[in-house]
Amino acid sequence: MPVRTLLVVAAVGLGSCALVSDRQHRKEAAVVGDRLLASGFRALPADTSAKKAHLETMPKLLFSSVVRDGKRRWVLADPYRCHCVYVGDDAAYKQYTDLEVAGEISSSDTATRRKGEVVGAMDQEIGNLGPYDADVVWPSGTSP
């Protein structure tokens, strides 16, 4: 295969990875943005060239804090979806973290429930292995 063909294939592969990564960032930004707004954060658009340049220098989708006039402000840059900076106080940050924890607990409960359903379905198949039953350790930890 000629080198040129390999380079084209590699470029297409890397380009598709970039598209998937960009879509993933946009999806994550949408969830985070909705939770931030629900928590009391304000979205400040990067609507000038100076703001856009500053937005690009900030950590993306990560919190940082700034103290101004003796008050802490939490800041999160979103260059993917809203092209803005979310700003909130300690109360908004606490509300956001509470929402995140509640979401994680809900996801964990859902995953545990699904795992239990899969384990139960696998245990129901015990009879399908016939003479191999003695060699199998089942997901529930029991043997046939």
Blueprint (SSEs and pairs):
Blueprint: H1 3-39, E1 42-45, H2 49-57, E2 63-68, E3 71-78, E4 84-88, H3 90-124
Antiparallel strand pairs: 1-4, 2-3, 3-4
Helix pairs in contact: 1-3
What does this entry look like structurally?
With 144 residues, this protein is α+β, with helices and mostly antiparallel strands. The protein has a domain at 22-120. It is 56% helix and 16% strand. It has 3 helices and 4 strands. The protein has helices at residues 3-39, 49-57, 90-124, and strands spanning 42-45, 63-68, 71-78, 84-88. A 4-stranded antiparallel β-sheet has the order 1-4-3-2. Strand 3 (71-78) and strand 4 (84-88) form a beta hairpin. Helix 1 packs across helix 3. The longest helix is centred in the N-terminal third of the chain and has 37 residues, at 3-39.
Tell me the strand order in the biggest sheet. Answer: 1-4-3-2
Basic shape = flat
As a percent range, the share of strand residues is: 15-25%
Radius of gyration computed on alpha carbons: 24 Å
